[in-house]
Design a protein that fits this description.
Blueprint (H helix, E strand, L loop, with lengths): L6 H13 L4 E6 L3 E6 L4 E5 L10 H6 L7 H5 L7 H16 L8 E2 L13 E5 L3 H9 L3 E5 L7 E2 L4 H4 L5 E5 L1 H4 L3 H7 L5 E5 L17 E7 L2 H9 L4 H4 L3 E7 L4
Parallel strand pairs: 5-6, 5-8, 6-7, 8-9, 9-10
Antiparallel strand pairs: 1-2, 2-3, 4-11, 10-11
């Protein structure tokens, strides 16, 4: 990648000044997702990896209580190796972006509504989004899904080395920012025609993806923050809080 530092570093740098003007109201670390609410009620979410769950980790002990802290403190956790810290950092970044209107051209709907596909395309999906996988198969498009959690039709994530370089379209989960695999995945995707970053964890920060193969950011806009916080606080996941969000896509300019 061109700029010499990671996507996580870019996100933190681009939000650094803004993060100094906001404070944390609430942090919820649920079974599937982390949610961060700022003092202005803006909310961001991020995936919480299974291996990060269970008990009070060193990160939680070090930074608690979260409420009242400057947002910059939690944003800095995005680069943490400890996944629960990185999840909190990602949710903080998404809350900071949610506190302002999106300036970019936005399209609502599924990511496939914004990507032109051909029957001959080869698609590599990193992170198995089952509904998306099924939709691609219904269109007769060849797709390989990779996921560290075994799912019907998925393969191990290590096979990205084989499949991404020969794909026309890469659909990459935004959770790869949290577990710090995104940078290598993008290096493997340089020959792809389209590269989308997907899922509720997706940061709508186009500047973080300059000089990368990424062509579209596909995430969610939260419409009912209270409902999202209630679901995450009770251990629920995206399936439960999906109705409180809208799918939003931001196409990036030609790289």
């Amino acid at each position: 990648m061109a700029m010499g530092y990671s996507i996580a570093d870019r996100i933190a740098e681009l939000l650094k000044e803004k993060s100094r003007t906001h404070t944390i109201k609430t942090v919820l670390v649920g079974l599937s997702y982390t949610a961060v609410e700022l003092e202005d009620s803006a909310i961001g979410v991020a995936f919480n990896f299974p291996q990060a769950r269970g008990g009070c980790t060193e990160t939680l002990r070090k930074y608690k209580p979260f409420a009242g802290k400057e947002a910059s403190v939690l944003l800095s956790l995005l680069g943490e190796k400890e996944l629960i810290g990185a999840s909190i950092g990602m949710a903080t970044a998404n809350a900071l972006k949610a506190s302002e209107p999106l300036q970019e051209e936005v399209f609502e709907g599924d990511v496939l509504d914004c990507i032109e596909t051909e029957p001959t395309d080869k698609v590599c999906m990193v992170g198995c989004f089952v509904p998306l996988l099924n939709l691609l198969k219904e269109r007769g498009i060849g797709v390989v899904a990779l996921d560290e959690t075994p799912k019907p039709g998925s393969r191990p994530p290590e096979e990205a080395e084989r499949y991404l370089p020969q794909s026309d379209i890469a659909l990459i989960t935004a959770t790869s920012i949290i577990n710090h695999t995104i940078d290598h995945l993008l290096e493997l995707s340089t020959s792809c025609r389209e590269v989308a970053i997907l899922g509720p964890s997706t940061p709508f920060i186009p500047g973080a993806f300059l000089n990368t193969p990424v062509t579209i950011l596909s995430g969610v806009k939260i419409d009912n923050g209270k409902e999202v916080m209630d679901v995450i606080g009770e251990g629920g996941g995206f399936r439960e809080f999906k109705k409180s969000t809208r799918k939003v896509n931001i196409p990036l300019k030609a790289r």
